[in-house]
Specification:
alpha/beta; Rossmann fold; two-stranded parallel sheet
Length: 134
């Protein structure tokens, strides 16, 4: 999931920071990540950097930490993760969004596939902008 997220974000011209273990840093660079962080060495939520979007595919960090790392209009997306992270997101999310100077929206949704999205992804694959990583 993360490898596709990096490549799709790059196709939109985003500056991407990938976060994973040391074994995957070179892989993330090879598919376009501009910056990479080993989560064993660096907590991206404490670096002072602010992100417009955080896509969390494992939900190991709390939403409190994610909020700290978001820009004022930032978006935090959880894709997967543990049940405890899900419940924290669903039940604490609305409360957290009311604290501080950031307004966060917490939503739960499932998006069905549609032809336009599939055509867009097909174009990315055909152009070589997104490649499967095995």
């Amino acid at each position: 999931m993360g490898t596709f997220a990096i490549q799709i974000a790059k196709s939109f011209g985003a500056e991407v920071t990938g976060v994973d273990n040391a074994k995957k840093l070179d892989l993330m660079r090879s598919i376009g990540a501009d910056h990479v962080l080993d989560f064993h060495e660096t907590d991206f939520t404490k670096t002072g950097e602010r992100y417009d979007m955080i896509i969390d595919t494992v939900a190991r960090r709390s939403i409190f930490a994610a909020k700290r790392a978001l820009s004022p209009d930032g978006l935090f997306v959880i894709v997967g993760g543990s049940r405890s992270a899900f419940f924290q997101f669903v039940f604490l999310g609305p409360l957290i969004s009311r604290t501080g100077n950031k307004t966060l929206s917490f939503n739960w949704w499932s998006q069905p596939c549609n032809k336009e999205d599939m055509d867009f992804l097909t174009e990315l694959f055909e152009a070589g902008k997104v490649v499967p990583v095995i």
